[in-house]
Write a structure and sequence with these properties.
alpha+beta, 4-stranded mixed β-sheet, 10 helices, 4 strands, 57% helix, steroid-binding
Length: 227
Protein backbone atom coordinates (compact mmCIF):
# COMPACT_ATOMS: atom_id res chain seq x y z
CA UNK A 1 0.00 0.00 0.00
CA UNK A 2 2.82 2.39 0.91
CA UNK A 3 4.64 1.55 -2.34
CA UNK A 4 1.49 2.26 -4.38
CA UNK A 5 1.14 5.67 -2.81
CA UNK A 6 4.78 6.42 -3.47
CA UNK A 7 4.41 5.43 -7.14
CA UNK A 8 1.32 7.63 -7.48
CA UNK A 9 3.12 10.62 -6.00
CA UNK A 10 6.08 10.01 -8.31
CA UNK A 11 3.74 9.78 -11.36
CA UNK A 12 1.98 13.04 -10.47
CA UNK A 13 5.29 14.82 -10.10
CA UNK A 14 6.49 13.45 -13.44
CA UNK A 15 3.29 14.54 -15.23
CA UNK A 16 3.58 18.05 -13.81
CA UNK A 17 7.29 18.25 -14.58
CA UNK A 18 7.09 17.05 -18.20
CA UNK A 19 3.72 18.48 -19.32
CA UNK A 20 3.11 21.39 -16.99
CA UNK A 21 -0.42 20.07 -16.43
CA UNK A 22 -2.09 18.79 -13.33
CA UNK A 23 -2.75 15.04 -13.22
CA UNK A 24 -6.52 15.58 -13.49
CA UNK A 25 -6.14 17.73 -16.61
CA UNK A 26 -3.67 15.30 -18.15
CA UNK A 27 -5.97 12.27 -17.81
CA UNK A 28 -8.96 14.27 -19.07
CA UNK A 29 -7.09 15.24 -22.23
CA UNK A 30 -5.96 11.62 -22.68
CA UNK A 31 -9.56 10.39 -22.55
CA UNK A 32 -10.67 13.02 -25.06
CA UNK A 33 -7.87 12.10 -27.47
CA UNK A 34 -8.87 8.42 -27.29
CA UNK A 35 -12.51 9.27 -28.04
CA UNK A 36 -11.51 11.40 -31.05
CA UNK A 37 -9.30 8.60 -32.38
CA UNK A 38 -12.13 6.07 -32.09
CA UNK A 39 -14.56 8.31 -34.01
CA UNK A 40 -12.08 9.19 -36.74
CA UNK A 41 -11.01 5.58 -37.27
CA UNK A 42 -14.66 4.62 -37.70
CA UNK A 43 -15.22 7.30 -40.34
CA UNK A 44 -12.08 6.54 -42.32
CA UNK A 45 -11.89 2.76 -41.89
CA UNK A 46 -11.32 0.14 -44.56
CA UNK A 47 -13.49 0.66 -47.67
CA UNK A 48 -14.22 -3.07 -47.86
CA UNK A 49 -15.55 -3.07 -44.33
CA UNK A 50 -17.86 -0.15 -45.05
CA UNK A 51 -19.05 -1.75 -48.29
CA UNK A 52 -19.88 -5.02 -46.59
CA UNK A 53 -21.70 -3.22 -43.81
CA UNK A 54 -23.72 -1.13 -46.30
CA UNK A 55 -24.55 -4.25 -48.33
CA UNK A 56 -25.73 -6.03 -45.21
CA UNK A 57 -27.85 -3.10 -44.13
CA UNK A 58 -29.31 -2.84 -47.63
CA UNK A 59 -30.27 -6.49 -47.67
CA UNK A 60 -31.92 -6.20 -44.29
CA UNK A 61 -33.97 -3.18 -45.31
CA UNK A 62 -35.22 -4.79 -48.52
CA UNK A 63 -38.68 -6.37 -48.20
CA UNK A 64 -38.64 -10.15 -48.35
CA UNK A 65 -40.59 -11.87 -51.13
CA UNK A 66 -43.65 -13.80 -50.00
CA UNK A 67 -42.96 -17.45 -49.11
CA UNK A 68 -43.47 -19.92 -51.94
CA UNK A 69 -45.28 -23.17 -51.18
CA UNK A 70 -43.19 -26.12 -52.35
CA UNK A 71 -45.36 -29.06 -51.34
CA UNK A 72 -43.51 -32.33 -50.83
CA UNK A 73 -39.82 -32.29 -51.77
CA UNK A 74 -36.95 -34.66 -51.13
CA UNK A 75 -34.08 -34.00 -48.74
CA UNK A 76 -31.74 -33.55 -51.71
CA UNK A 77 -34.01 -30.82 -53.10
CA UNK A 78 -34.08 -29.13 -49.70
CA UNK A 79 -30.29 -28.76 -49.78
CA UNK A 80 -30.67 -26.22 -52.60
CA UNK A 81 -32.19 -23.76 -50.10
CA UNK A 82 -29.26 -23.51 -47.67
CA UNK A 83 -28.67 -19.80 -48.36
CA UNK A 84 -25.80 -20.24 -50.81
CA UNK A 85 -27.98 -18.73 -53.55
CA UNK A 86 -29.31 -15.37 -52.30
CA UNK A 87 -32.07 -15.49 -54.92
CA UNK A 88 -33.62 -18.56 -53.32
CA UNK A 89 -35.46 -18.61 -50.00
CA UNK A 90 -33.70 -19.90 -46.92
CA UNK A 91 -35.41 -23.06 -45.73
CA UNK A 92 -35.07 -25.41 -42.81
CA UNK A 93 -37.07 -28.42 -41.61
CA UNK A 94 -38.15 -29.72 -38.23
CA UNK A 95 -39.79 -33.14 -37.88
CA UNK A 96 -40.31 -33.30 -41.63
CA UNK A 97 -42.03 -29.89 -41.87
CA UNK A 98 -40.25 -27.21 -43.93
CA UNK A 99 -40.22 -23.56 -42.85
CA UNK A 100 -39.07 -20.40 -44.60
CA UNK A 101 -36.49 -18.77 -42.28
CA UNK A 102 -35.38 -16.08 -44.74
CA UNK A 103 -36.25 -13.33 -42.26
CA UNK A 104 -33.60 -14.73 -39.89
CA UNK A 105 -30.83 -14.96 -42.46
CA UNK A 106 -28.37 -13.47 -39.95
CA UNK A 107 -28.79 -16.62 -37.87
CA UNK A 108 -29.38 -19.36 -40.44
CA UNK A 109 -27.70 -17.83 -43.49
CA UNK A 110 -24.05 -18.22 -44.50
CA UNK A 111 -21.79 -17.04 -41.68
CA UNK A 112 -24.57 -17.25 -39.08
CA UNK A 113 -24.32 -19.27 -35.87
CA UNK A 114 -26.91 -21.80 -37.11
CA UNK A 115 -25.95 -21.84 -40.78
CA UNK A 116 -25.22 -25.56 -40.78
CA UNK A 117 -28.92 -26.25 -40.04
CA UNK A 118 -30.15 -24.52 -43.21
CA UNK A 119 -31.25 -26.70 -46.09
CA UNK A 120 -31.65 -29.73 -43.81
CA UNK A 121 -34.01 -31.41 -41.40
CA UNK A 122 -32.00 -30.74 -38.25
CA UNK A 123 -34.48 -32.18 -35.76
CA UNK A 124 -31.95 -34.38 -33.97
CA UNK A 125 -29.33 -31.62 -33.80
CA UNK A 126 -31.83 -29.13 -32.36
CA UNK A 127 -33.08 -31.62 -29.80
CA UNK A 128 -29.53 -32.33 -28.61
CA UNK A 129 -28.23 -28.80 -29.31
CA UNK A 130 -25.48 -30.49 -31.28
CA UNK A 131 -23.40 -29.09 -34.12
CA UNK A 132 -22.00 -32.42 -35.24
CA UNK A 133 -22.60 -33.61 -38.79
CA UNK A 134 -23.92 -36.98 -37.61
CA UNK A 135 -26.81 -35.24 -35.83
CA UNK A 136 -27.91 -33.20 -38.86
CA UNK A 137 -30.79 -35.53 -39.59
CA UNK A 138 -34.51 -35.84 -39.09
CA UNK A 139 -34.12 -39.17 -37.31
CA UNK A 140 -35.20 -38.64 -33.70
CA UNK A 141 -35.23 -42.27 -32.61
CA UNK A 142 -33.54 -42.97 -29.29
CA UNK A 143 -33.89 -39.43 -27.91
CA UNK A 144 -34.65 -38.95 -24.24
CA UNK A 145 -37.67 -37.11 -22.81
CA UNK A 146 -35.73 -33.90 -22.15
CA UNK A 147 -34.39 -33.86 -25.70
CA UNK A 148 -37.87 -34.44 -27.10
CA UNK A 149 -39.20 -31.57 -24.98
CA UNK A 150 -36.45 -29.31 -26.31
CA UNK A 151 -37.35 -30.29 -29.87
CA UNK A 152 -41.01 -29.58 -29.14
CA UNK A 153 -40.08 -26.08 -27.97
CA UNK A 154 -38.15 -25.48 -31.20
CA UNK A 155 -41.13 -26.68 -33.24
CA UNK A 156 -43.52 -24.35 -31.41
CA UNK A 157 -41.12 -21.46 -32.01
CA UNK A 158 -40.91 -22.17 -35.73
CA UNK A 159 -44.67 -22.64 -36.05
CA UNK A 160 -45.33 -19.26 -34.43
CA UNK A 161 -42.57 -17.29 -36.17
CA UNK A 162 -42.08 -18.77 -39.66
CA UNK A 163 -44.30 -19.84 -42.53
CA UNK A 164 -44.57 -23.51 -43.34
CA UNK A 165 -43.90 -24.01 -47.05
CA UNK A 166 -43.85 -27.78 -47.45
CA UNK A 167 -42.80 -31.12 -46.09
CA UNK A 168 -40.08 -33.68 -46.76
CA UNK A 169 -41.13 -36.54 -48.99
CA UNK A 170 -40.92 -39.85 -47.19
CA UNK A 171 -39.31 -42.81 -48.89
CA UNK A 172 -41.83 -45.16 -50.48
CA UNK A 173 -41.98 -48.54 -48.77
CA UNK A 174 -42.44 -51.38 -51.28
CA UNK A 175 -45.46 -53.52 -50.45
CA UNK A 176 -45.28 -56.07 -53.28
CA UNK A 177 -42.85 -58.37 -51.54
CA UNK A 178 -44.75 -58.22 -48.28
CA UNK A 179 -48.06 -58.97 -49.98
CA UNK A 180 -46.65 -61.88 -51.95
CA UNK A 181 -45.00 -63.34 -48.86
CA UNK A 182 -48.29 -62.98 -46.98
CA UNK A 183 -50.20 -64.71 -49.76
CA UNK A 184 -47.67 -67.53 -49.94
CA UNK A 185 -47.90 -68.02 -46.17
CA UNK A 186 -51.69 -68.24 -46.35
CA UNK A 187 -51.45 -70.67 -49.24
CA UNK A 188 -49.05 -72.90 -47.34
CA UNK A 189 -51.31 -72.82 -44.30
CA UNK A 190 -54.34 -73.84 -46.39
CA UNK A 191 -52.38 -76.68 -47.97
CA UNK A 192 -51.28 -77.89 -44.55
CA UNK A 193 -54.89 -77.90 -43.31
CA UNK A 194 -56.07 -79.82 -46.38
CA UNK A 195 -53.29 -82.37 -45.95
CA UNK A 196 -54.16 -82.82 -42.27
CA UNK A 197 -57.85 -83.38 -43.15
CA UNK A 198 -57.05 -85.96 -45.81
CA UNK A 199 -54.51 -87.90 -43.75
CA UNK A 200 -56.97 -90.18 -41.81
CA UNK A 201 -58.48 -91.36 -45.09
CA UNK A 202 -55.10 -92.32 -46.45
CA UNK A 203 -54.00 -94.10 -43.30
CA UNK A 204 -57.03 -96.40 -43.12
CA UNK A 205 -60.82 -96.61 -43.07
CA UNK A 206 -62.61 -94.26 -40.77
CA UNK A 207 -64.75 -95.32 -37.84
CA UNK A 208 -67.97 -94.69 -39.76
CA UNK A 209 -66.86 -96.92 -42.61
CA UNK A 210 -66.00 -99.67 -40.16
CA UNK A 211 -69.44 -99.39 -38.59
CA UNK A 212 -71.19 -99.69 -41.95
CA UNK A 213 -69.08 -102.71 -42.87
CA UNK A 214 -69.97 -104.45 -39.59
CA UNK A 215 -73.68 -103.94 -40.25
CA UNK A 216 -73.46 -105.35 -43.76
CA UNK A 217 -71.48 -108.47 -42.67
CA UNK A 218 -73.64 -111.00 -40.68
CA UNK A 219 -72.20 -112.36 -37.49
CA UNK A 220 -71.43 -116.07 -36.98
CA UNK A 221 -74.29 -116.47 -34.49
CA UNK A 222 -76.83 -115.21 -37.00
CA UNK A 223 -75.49 -117.57 -39.62
CA UNK A 224 -75.86 -120.54 -37.25
CA UNK A 225 -79.46 -119.67 -36.47
CA UNK A 226 -80.41 -119.50 -40.13
CA UNK A 227 -79.02 -122.98 -40.67
Amino acid sequence: MVMALQLWETLKEAITAYTGLSPATFFTLLALLWAVYYVVSGLFGSPDTHYQQRSRDYEQTQPLPPPVQLGEISEDDLKQYDGADPKKPLLMAIKGQIYDVSQSRMFYGPGGPYALFAGKDASRALAKMSFEDKDLTGDISGLGPFELDALQDWEYKFMSKYVKVGSIKKDDVPVTDGASSGESAEKKEAEAEAEAAAKPVEDGPSESAAAVRSEETPSTNDAAKEE
